[in-house]
Amino acid sequence: MGFEYSEMKAFRRQIADLRKASYDIHMKVAKRIALLAIRKVKKMTPVDTGDLRNSWEFSVIKRGNDYIVTIFNPKEYTSFVENGHRIVVAGKTVGWVEGRFMLKLTVDEMERIAPNMWKKEVEKEMRRIFGN
């Protein structure tokens, strides 16, 4: 029952490689999740002129140990389509337009599938580095 010191040096190098690759791995997965979310929210966005559908954007930032994916649409009327709005005629409310909840439904789905996407990518990278 012994071990070779060279094996420990190799293991230490592998751990260092994993640490260096960690940021790239996580950023790649975060961007993949963001792009998938953009595709899904665009499919659910109603089309009149196409401006709302084509205006979806994302950003990914790292804050501490967290990778934060933000999906947004800069159009002023996005929240009215998302959440619904009242119909006003001559100063009186005459009805309500239901929201489409395209972003909420997309976020719910991403929160459900993102952990598995992260797990698979990290495991793939660990297999690459550690050779299993």
Q: What's the topology here?
A:
Blueprint lengths: L4 H40 L6 H4 L2 E7 L2 E7 L5 H6 E6 L2 E7 L3 H29 L2
Antiparallel strand pairs: 1-2, 3-4
If you had to describe this structure to a student in words, what would you say it looks like?
- It is a single chain.
- The protein is of the alpha+beta class.
- It has one domain.
- The protein is 60% helix and 20% strand.
- It has four helices and four strands, in the order H-H-E-E-H-E-E-H.
- A hairpin with a 2-residue loop joins strand 1 and strand 2.
- Helix 1 runs antiparallel to helix 4.
- The longest helix has 40 residues.
- The mean pLDDT is 92.
Give a quick summary of the entry.
The chain is an alpha+beta fold and 132 residues long. The chain has helices at 5-44, 51-54, 78-83, 102-130; strands spanning 57-63, 66-72, 84-89, 92-98. Helices cover 60% and strands 20% of the residues.
- What characterizes the major β-sheet? 2 strands, antiparallel
What is the helix/strand order? HHEEHEEH
- Determine the fraction of residues in helical runs and give it as a percent range: 55-70%
End-to-end Cα distance, whole Å, is 23 Å
Q: Based on CA inertia axes, which overall geometry fits? A: rod-shaped
> Mean pLDDT across all residues, rounded?
92
Number of DSSP-assigned strands: 4
Total number of distinct structural domains: 1
- Unreliably modeled segments: none
